[in-house]
# Entry
Amino acid sequence: MPAAAAMLLLAGCTDNAAAPRSATADGRTLSVQASDAACTLSATSAPSGTLTFTVTNTGSQVTEFYLLAADGLRIVAEVENIGPGITRDLVLSAPAGDYISACKPGMVGDGIRAPFTVTDSGEPVGPGGGDAELVEAATTAYGSYVRDQVDQLLAGTKEFVAAYTAGKDDDARALYAPTRVHWERIEPVAESFGDLDPKMDAREADLAEGEKWTGWHRIEKDLWPQRAKNYTPLTTAQRRTYAEDLLANTQTLWDRTRDLTYTVDAIANGAKGLLDEVATGKVTGEEEYWSRTDLWDFQANVDGARVAWQGLHELLERKDAALDARIATRFAELQALLDRTKSGEGFVPYDTLGKAQVKELSDAVNALSEPLSKMAGAVLS
Amino acid sequence: MTASGLSRRGLIASAGAGAAVALAGAGAMAATGRAQAAADAEPLLHTVPFHGDRQAGITTAAQDRLHFAAFDLLASATRDDLVGLLQDWTAAAARMTQGLGAGPVGPLTGNYDAPPDDTGEAIGLDPANLTITFGFGPTLFRDAAGTDRFGLAGRQPAALTRLPHFPGDALVASASDGDLCVQACSDDPQVAVHAIRNLTRIAFGRAAIRWSQLGFGRTSSTARDQVTPRNLFGFKDGTASLRAEDTAGIDAHVWTAPSGNPGTAWLDGGSYLVARKIAMHIETWDRGSLREQEQIIGRTKAEGAPLSGGGEFTAADFGLAGRGGAPLIDPHSHLAMAHPDRNHGVQLLRRGYNYVDGSNQLGRLSAGLFFIAFVTDPTTHYIPMQTALAANDLLSEYLQHVGSGLWAVPPGVREGQFVGQALFT
# Structure
């Protein structure tokens, strides 16, 4: 192989391996050497557009890198928690203007600051920072949504456990799926409480040997024991125990979500997480093994993800309109498929779906999940 | 509740300590990767050019590993989606075959809050002669109901139709057909899988995998200096396959001739890819005597020499008889049945691989040959031969064709173009 070709190929390899990069030809990729005592940038200016600061912590303390507005107060973009020896990229869209760069070794004080200039490249640049109002609106709206869903979950659960403990099994079966949708719509929030989730939403197979099984799915099996082998129905006393336990845990969830606040990345990643839930548990028919009401949960997960996206929609549209439009289309396509599985007020049982139908739903979930997984990065850039 | 709930917990919980630990861990791994890559960097990378008159992966010396995937366009996909997908696939394939990441940013850099545009399992790996070859199936032009979904029906070559049912076929839909196919070959299985995985990801929302197949141990040679490998019956396979050095033979038997029809001229200089998943009845074959095995194949197991004598590449003498006047090479042996003399002089460029999909419920190997051939015209170069083989080849007792597909393989891609571009202009 000629030497020149070999060099080219070598360059290719190092790119795939993502070796540290130096400043690029267009001047928009800069390196930052952040030591305990210095903050050395490969350049002190860059043309407006999408900038990448590749920050390497050459010091011995945990460090941070900031790009601040000219007032030295407002944070335009930041990358935190860079351990010694680690390299991390900060990507942002920066309009022309004066800025201040800062490394903060030890994560304390004002940091090692220096002026940084973004020159006008003449290319259009999305809004960088300055979206505080949209962020505030999105996070406030999402908090209200979660509270409302947990309100309804608590009210529904009361009704459900009352019917169940009274032995009104038909009523309990009718209430099961419509109540659980309020859980499924906010599942990532509910799951963020690591102690509550296993008590309330564990499936039998999730448990380790000897662990006690409680919560929704324990009661589900008792109400729909048809697929169980040699099943012994719960006694009235046992029913009361499980019902009271579920209600108490739901009350705890209600208490904890009253003042809970959310960040935009939590909302965006929560939307992605809901679709992950659909992909791993619902479209495969694993979530509601006994009742076969998986499609109710499917719809609820999609509802929750849609609400999260709608809250961020304005912000996302300003950052990446094409991504926002793609998400809108894919939500509509997935919903059209789900609508075909509706039956009365609810959905057909999972086991009535044909293989081709499951594949079609799974493809639509993949189609939506892929752009949705990019939402957090886009709204935070 | 699922195991993946853990990561969401880290992201969303108000307590951030767990997340901080997780992030630091990820960073440390990245740093290790970078250091490792720098330490391992050597100036010798094995790459095959992506751009050229022909697609790579046809006459390219057969690599040792395969990941083959068939895709279907989604019901919602439009012509623009199809074109966009082919553009995006072309860009990604051009990058990956040269040892770059699937996307321009790479597996370890870019927006920390966004998923990387390359999945990362090829970091630090030599592309190991990775080639990525694309094909268009009959259903891209007219779907099963005859609908012209993408305005391409007028561009469908006459030979691009579903292969007919051959005697003994037991085809399953999960190993057959597809609107598009991608053949990824490399000497490193992880590199081939990385290619299909990233192309699949790029396709989400436009096309989805219909089925895919892993293969190992190339079962044919496409260059003269390659030793003829053995298939899972233990015999040298593909001794008579066309080699890249035989340019006249390649021109006659592999590349499509100019169609003289403006509608189908997009395929001029391309080829057809025939894929057949051929299950082997391994356990019963292994109980056959060496005499029976050699009689069925028509060659010696040791050298691969025709039973009429000589070495592996000695021409077979079908007239040579032994005691009692019986020909040394059984006229129904695989060698005889597949020989060009019995098939109007037709030769195949074979590029198949062995496969083992674990074992079945009876404890038998789910194994066989994933047959791939590139031919100038399936109606002259595959269908007649397979019709005869299926009916009379002694070997067919030990084979069952379970998967099938035919795709038109457009010619090569020039810089700045995308694969199959001429089909859309």
Q: What stands out?
A: The first helix of chain A runs from residue 3 to 16. The longest strand of chain A covers residues 49-57. The domain at 20-119 of chain A is CATH 2.60.40.420 (Immunoglobulin-like). Chain A touches chain B through 73 residues (CB under 8 Å).
